[in-house]
Specification:
- This protein is mainly alpha-helical.
- It has helices at residues 7-23, 25-35, 40-63, 65-70, 85-109, 114-118, 121-150, 154-181, 184-204, 211-235; strands at 74-78, 81-84.
- The radius of gyration is 19 Å and the shape is globular.
């Protein structure tokens, strides 16, 4: 335990916690959107299950570090593009995310009634959980590879992941309430999730797109939408 006395370890832990939270933002947004499809009594349950599954997946992947490292090795080459296991997962995950975001956006724009969603009952809940598991697997892989590249100690990686997921669990409740209050934000988020899906596909082909610009655009757009909501409330006071 002597390594715990090293200040660099604590700096690495703090940095990794922040990075894990940043890398989990898009996952958290999609969990909130999927949970919004369920009856209000089931949303918290889906949120907790979704994030708990994400935590388990990340801890399992961290325990398989030697296998994770091999995922970055090229498996085959097509034309000038070489593909590793990591690239294939990003490609499939990007396609799935793009499809799901486009489908959700279409349903929102079609203005489906909540009653239509609620009538699916229990099966709808588990369908949402399955979708969350698939997305968790995709987003978790990226976060774990980042952790492996930053820190040498497995215990530090796992600690950072647990802390980050605990913070996200606390934040997710407020995020779901925020989405329920400002439904137009869902359309914005789904549009950006489509862009993130395209970004994952691009990364699968070896084109790396800085996510900082994307997150800044998301934050700015949501801020503008909040101003619009405030303006509408002032025009139509209750």
């Amino acid at each position: 335990m002597e390594f715990l006395m090293d200040p660099a370890i604590w700096v690495g832990l703090l940095t990794l916690v922040i990075l894990e939270i940043v890398l989990g933002i898009d996952n958290l947004v999609f969990i909130a959107i999927l949970a919004d499809k369920l009856p209000s009594k089931k949303r918290d349950r889906a949120r907790v299950i979704g994030l708990a599954i994400a935590l388990v997946i990340r801890l399992v992947l961290l325990s398989l570090i030697s296998w994770i490292v091999t995922l970055t090795r090229p498996l085959f080459t097509i034309s000038s593009f070489s593909f590793s296991g990591h690239d294939l997962i990003l490609l499939l995950g990007g396609i799935f995310l793009l499809f799901k975001a486009a489908t959700e956006l279409h349903e929102r724009l079609e203005n489906k009634k909540d009653d239509d969603r609620n009538c699916r009952g229990y099966s709808s809940f588990w369908a949402v959980v399955v979708e969350i598991v698939i997305l968790d697997a995709v987003f978790s892989l990226d976060a774990v590879i980042t952790a492996v590249g930053m820190v040498d100690h497995l215990s530090i990686m796992m600690t950072a992941v647990v802390i980050a997921m605990a913070i996200m669990l606390l934040a997710s409740r407020s995020l779901i309430r925020f989405i329920n209050r400002y439904q137009t934000v869902i359309v914005l988020c789904l549009s950006f999730l489509m862009i993130i899906g395209l970004g994952l596909i691009a990364e699968g082909f070896g084109f790396h797109i800085p996510k900082g610009y994307l997150y800044a655009a998301i934050g700015f757009s949501i801020l503008i939408e909040l101003f619009n909501e405030i303006a509408r409330a002032d025009e139509h006071p209750s």
